[in-house]
């Protein structure tokens, strides 16, 4: 099996705190592995740039060392012969002060330019890394088995693709910033050692002890990160639910209920954030206090015990001023990283889950036949994963090519599952789908889906023009002639008479058109694919009778051009059908051919309309 760099090791059972810390370490090392795996060479180049950046900063500080010999002594030339740091031998013996100061200014300018390029390079690197996961997650969702994806709450997927990915960006940024601090601290360590070994050990020892003492605050950050994850998920679920049911909420005066729910979650999130900020600022305050105490101790020891000259003390202090914020930066970055790491954990878990349910049909490219005579579902059984009851039980039915077949039955009878089996979205655990007598193989399902068109009760519409909405099905721009042909077939010729024609805006989810118009456009959109099989799932159910009649006329006109399967609760469409199958509790319990036999009073349709 291929090694997955993002795999998070499962921690062994332990005390909650130890388990949490192990989980964080696991997530961190898996994030680092993923960054190395994906960005490999660029990551090392980025690290090289960080080293160079710190070196140039260090060099700028070291150039002050010779200037300091003028302190008290005065003069305009500097004697470099007494310098004993590495590489000092390469310098001339004497240098004018003006030239040295110019060199310092020039060096700082170059450093600023270099830092700019370094920042852009690292920013690109993090964006590319994050975008890789965004697209990978997108692909995983698109390629997982439909039965599995259908069970994942929409808000969970939306949250992963938006909020969690943003936090992953932050986490990757923080990993780099921790690296930057580590590189800086290591290089300054070497520079300081060249000036004074005991003072270096004292200041670094102090920093390391202070970092170790901050452990409880890191644990706090971990807790907060986990809670934040949960709160954000609930926040997004509440938003999705409210936005998804906006009309219902407005019509039933439920907005205050949603607002209350939302405010409660926001209140909890705020309380968490407040508590975290309160506690963590105690930590950073203590750290700051420790750093200032360290500086005081540092000067005291340097003057009283180590007896350093003023020049060296000033340089060491300059270095100290660079290293102390890095120790503080380390603590801050690690703390924030622990807050954002759970998002990485959640993304990897979701990806693992989706990949374990990868739809093998996605790889299939075998051609699928167009039905000439019939599509037969032969003794098919389908049970949703984890459910004890079969949604479809040993069902057989035949859709004759070119006919309109209607599936009716009470809610939960298994009609949608049957339609999904016809479309190749669900692969029955038992039985087969036969096209003109030959069973469809898994390798043919992808191309089979190319042969199908689908219209839902609430068809998906983007907030764009009619043309843009039509183009979705074609997968790209289509010429007007094809669009109008499809619109005419779907009895949606009214578009020609609209002042803006195909450029008419449909509004959010098509809200600027009537339900019937929207639905006929949805049928036209499906027809643009020139499908051999058209599936309509409750496509007429939300319409008034006039619009329903218009849509039924359109469907009626498609008879003979393609095989149509329609699910409905309404008698009007059933009356127009060639064949009606009645489903109950996952089984086909009756069938009628109303056009040939007329409506039988004791039949399902007869009872439905009586
Ligand atoms: N994603 C799912 N996960 C688990 N069970 C499901 C899922 N979708 C449907 N079911 C169950 O499978 C059975 C058949 O559902 P199906 O949607 O096929 O029925 P239906 O006749 O189309 O119902 P309706 O008319 O209400 O849409 C029902 O018991 C339903 O609860």
TrEMBL record:
Compartment(s) where it occurs, according to its Swiss-Prot or TrEMBL record: Cell membrane
Molecular function (GO) terms for this protein are: ABC-type transporter activity; ATP binding; ATP hydrolysis activity; ATPase-coupled lipid transmembrane transporter activity
Short name of any one Pfam family annotated for the protein: ABC_tran
Q: Which InterPro entries match?
A: AAA+_ATPase (IPR003593), ABC1_TM_dom (IPR011527), ABC1_TM_sf (IPR036640), ABC_transporter-like_ATP-bd (IPR003439), ABC_transporter-like_CS (IPR017871), P-loop_NTPase (IPR027417), Type_1_exporter (IPR039421)
Keyword set, alphabetical order: ATP-binding, Membrane, Nucleotide-binding, Transmembrane, Transmembrane helix
Quick one: a GO cellular component term? plasma membrane
Lineage of the organism: Bacteria, Pseudomonadati, Pseudomonadota, Alphaproteobacteria, Rhodobacterales
- Could you name the domain of life of the organism this protein comes from? Bacteria
Question: Matching SMART domains, A to Z?
Answer: AAA
Q: What is this protein called?
A: ATP-binding cassette, subfamily C
- Which residue intervals make up region (Disordered)? 1-22
TM segments?
43-68, 88-114, 168-189, 195-214, 280-299
Q: Which residues are in the ABC transmembrane type-1 domain? A: 44-337
Give the membrane topology: Multi-pass membrane protein
Per UniProt, residues of the ABC transporter domain are 375-610
């Amino acid at each position: 099996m291929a090694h997955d760099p993002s795999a998070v090791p499962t921690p062994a059972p332990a005390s909650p705190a130890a388990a949490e810390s192990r989980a964080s370490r696991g997530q961190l090392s898996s994030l680092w592995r993923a960054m190395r795996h994906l960005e490999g060479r660029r990551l090392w180049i980025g690290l090289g740039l960080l080293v160079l950046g710190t070196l140039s900063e260090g060099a700028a500080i070291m150039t002050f060392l010779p200037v300091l010999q003028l302190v008290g002594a005065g003069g305009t030339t500097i004697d470099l012969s007494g310098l004993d740091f590495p590489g000092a031998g390469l310098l001339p013996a004497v240098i004018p002060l003006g030239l040295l100061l110019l060199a310092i200014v020039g060096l700082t300018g170059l450093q600023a330019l270099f830092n700019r390029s370094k920042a852009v390079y690292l920013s690109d690197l993090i964006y590319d890394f994050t975008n890789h996961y965004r697209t990978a997650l997108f692909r995983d969702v698109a390629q997982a088995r439909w039965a599995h994806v259908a069970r994942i709450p929409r808000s969970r997927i939306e949250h992963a693709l938006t909020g969690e990915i943003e936090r992953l960006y932050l986490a990757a940024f923080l990993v780099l910033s921790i690296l930057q601090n580590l590189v800086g601290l290591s290089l300054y360590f070497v520079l300081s050692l060249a000036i004074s070994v005991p003072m270096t050990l004292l200041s670094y020892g102090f920093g390391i002890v202070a970092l170790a003492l901050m452990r409880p605050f890191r644990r706090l950050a971990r807790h907060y990160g986990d809670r934040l994850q949960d709160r954000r998920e609930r926040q997004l679920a509440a938003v999705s639910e409210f936005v998804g049911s906006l009309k219902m909420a407005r019509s039933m005066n439920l907005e205050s209920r949603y607002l209350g729910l939302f405010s409660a979650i926001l209140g909890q999130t705020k309380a968490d954030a407040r508590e975290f900020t309160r506690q963590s600022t105690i930590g950073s305050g203590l750290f700051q206090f420790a750093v200032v105490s360290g500086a005081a101790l540092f000067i005291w020891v340097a003057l009283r015990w180590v007896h350093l000259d003023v020049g060296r003390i000033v340089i060491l202090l300059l270095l100290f001023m660079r290293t102390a914020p890095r120790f503080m930066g380390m603590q801050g970055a690690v703390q924030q990283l622990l807050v954002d790491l759970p998002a990485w954990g959640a993304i990897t878990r979701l990806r693992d889950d989706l990949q374990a349910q990868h739809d093998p049909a996605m790889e299939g490219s075998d051609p699928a036949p167009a039905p000439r005579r019939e599509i037969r579902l032969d003794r098919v059984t389908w049970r949703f994963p984890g459910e004890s009851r079969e949604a479809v039980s040993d069902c057989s039915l035949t859709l004759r090519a070119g006919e309109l077949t209607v599936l009716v039955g009470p809610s939960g009878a298994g009609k949608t599952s049957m339609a999904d089996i016809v479309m190749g979205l669900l692969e029955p655990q038992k039985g087969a789908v036969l096209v003109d007598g030959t069973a469809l193989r898994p390798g043919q399902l992808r191309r089979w889906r190319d042969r199908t068109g689908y219209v839902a009760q609430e068809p998906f519409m983007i907030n764009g023009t009619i043309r843009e909405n039509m183009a979705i099905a074609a997968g790209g721009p289509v010429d007007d002639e094809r669009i109008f042909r499809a619109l005419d077939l779907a009895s949606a010729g009214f578009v020609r008479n609209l002042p803006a024609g195909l450029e008419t805006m449909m509004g959010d989810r098509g809200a600027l058109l009537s339900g019937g118009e929207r639905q006929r456009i949805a049928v036209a959109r499906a027809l643009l694919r020139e499908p051999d099989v058209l599936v309509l799932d409750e496509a007429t159910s939300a319409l008034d009778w006039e619009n329903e009649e218009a849509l039924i006329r359109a469907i009626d006109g498609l008879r003979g051009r393609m095989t149509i399967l329609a699910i409905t609760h309404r008698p009007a469409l059933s009356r127009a059908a060639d064949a009606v199958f009645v489903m109950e509790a996952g089984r086909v319990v009756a069938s009628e051919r109303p056009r040939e036999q007329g409506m039988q009073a004791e039949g399902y349709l007869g009872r439905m309309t009586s």
